[in-house]
Amino acid sequence: MSDDHGPHDADHSHTHIDWRENGVKVIPGDALDPNTAQTPGMNRATAINHARAGAEKIWAGTVTIHANAKTGAHHHGDLESIIYVVKGKARMRWGDNLEFTAEAGPGDFIFVPPYVPHQEINASQNETLECVLVRSGQDPVVVNLDIEPVEKPEHVRWVDPIHK
Q1: Which pLDDT belongs to residue 13?
Q2: d(C-alpha 117, C-alpha 163), whole Å
Q3: Phi then psi dihedrals of residue 32, to 5 deg
Q4: How far is CA 64 from CA 57, 59, 133, in A?
Q5: pLDDT at 95 over 60
Q6: What range(s) does the Cupin type-2 domain occupy (predicted)?
Q7: With contact defined as beta carbons under 8 Å apart, do 96 and 150 qualify?
Q8: What is d(CA 135, CA 82) in angstroms, rounded to the nearest whole number?
Q9: Which helix (H) or strand (E) segment is 61 a member of?
Q10: How confident is the model at residue 29, as a pLDDT?
Q11: What class has domain 41-155?
Q12: 62 Rama class: left (phi>0) / alpha (psi -120 to 50) / beta
């Protein structure tokens, strides 16, 4: 049996880390913080950021959009965003004139690259859309845009570029 426990041992050989205070954090779902950048039409709440959990490189939280509602057009600067649909039906519109559209349901992931103008729409007339959101940075960047959307957006079906 080897004494080598991996490359991370060397990082902590001279200092003891208090894993109780600097280890895993569980943030209860009813303890999220709504004091974060907002976009009209949706409610964002922070679960994980530097102040709440010590995260250095990511932000995570929830997004709720009421039945038959939609957000204003916006982007998140140089941040990448991942949206995981927990409940409901999401319709995403994106592009300079929100000319593209795709839908996602429970269990689906949505990736939004940096600077992409987009709009989230609750495609259900009577069910709240509930999502989990993860961003690649700590800054609560939300740039709300004044965009005149095209009348009939083009539906875009995702195709895995690796397994075409």
Answers
A1: 58
A2: 28
A3: -75, 160
A4: 23, 16, 10
A5: yes
A6: 62-133
A7: no
A8: 6
A9: strand 59-65
A10: 87
A11: mainly beta
A12: beta
